[in-house]
Write a structure and sequence with these properties.
The complex is a heterodimer of chains A (about 110) and B (about 110).
Chain A (H helix, E strand, L loop, with lengths): L3 E4 L2 E4 L5 E7 L5 E7 L5 E9 L2 E4 L6 E3 L9 E3 L8 E8 L6 E2 L3 E5 L1
Parallel strand pairs in A: 2-11
Antiparallel strand pairs in A: 1-3, 3-8, 4-5, 4-9, 5-6, 7-8, 9-10, 9-11
Chain B lengths: L3 E3 L4 E4 L4 E7 L7 E6 L6 E6 L3 E5 L2 E6 L4 E6 L8 E7 L10 E2 L3 E6 L1
Parallel strand pairs in B: 2-11
Antiparallel strand pairs in B: 1-3, 3-8, 4-5, 4-9, 6-7, 7-8, 9-10, 9-11
The chains are: A mainly beta (about 110), B mainly beta (about 110).
Chain lengths: ~110, ~110
């Protein structure tokens, strides 16, 4: 089955910890994206990558880091510099910069 | 100026009625328009896309695009309680360069049985 997978589904982080969220796709899409969604809010773009080994900051990149070493994978690290990381994190991919398809999401909670 | 705007709702309609969801955008050069549905606690799923002026129908859903007025609408006929969700409008903004789609904040639809 082709699609986008995110893991874990739920993640708990202690204060001062870095955590990494996984996003994998087997759709052969060139572009991948990370969004953050807070309760009752819209999607906010964190980072995106249009090609392997290249990525750009979105609107709220501070406290986050990414890598794009493989076309299929775009992991997101939430660093300790992100002061309010509790949110729903969504990964998406697209063939170009057009139609995006979303993974199931990771819900991160800070303890 | 907000680039993609939607009324946050909630929009309440009775079961069987037509739900009309609207979205306006700022970039006159926009060419691609998308509607996503997001159930509470789930990720967005693509419902429809439209590229040309006019109407595009898919089952109970109709997307309407008016580039001159810079708005795109989604009509849901014979609304069902299972249609209750948040609907996100997304637009490409070519004047902003080769950037990702811009999403509106979404309209929450509630279909009352």
């Amino acid at each position: 089955d082709g699609g986008i997978t995110q893991s874990p589904k739920y993640l708990f982080r202690k204060e001062g910890q870095n955590v990494t969220l996984s996003c994998e796709q087997n759709l052969n899409h060139d572009a991948m994206y990370w969004y953050r969604q807070d309760p009752g809010q819209g999607l906010r773009l964190i980072y995106y990558s249009q090609i392997v080994n290249d990525f750009q900051k979105g609107d709220i990149a501070e406290g986050y880091s990414v890598s794009r070493e493989k076309k299929e994978s775009f992991p997101l690290t939430v660093t300790s510099a992100q002061k309010n990381p509790t949110a729903f994190y969504l990964c998406a991919s697209s063939k170009d910069t057009d139609t995006q398809y979303f993974g199931p999401g990771t819900r991160l909670t800070v303890l | 100026q907000k680039e993609v705007e939607q009324n946050s709702g909630p929009l309440s309609v009775p079961e069987g009625a037509i739900a009309s969801l609207n979205c306006t955008y700022s970039d006159r050069g926009s060419q691609s328009f998308f509607w996503y549905r997001q159930y509470s606690g789930k990720s967005p799923e693509l419902i429809m896309f439209i590229y040309s002026n006019g109407d595009k129908e898919d089952g109970r859903f109709t997307a309407q695009l008016n580039k001159a007025s810079q708005y795109v609408s989604l009509l849901i006929r014979d609304s069902q309680p299972s249609d209750s969700a948040t609907y996100l409008c997304a637009v490409n903004l070519p004047l902003s360069g080769n950037t990702p789609l811009v999403f509106g904040k979404g309209t929450r639809l509630s279909v009352i049985a």
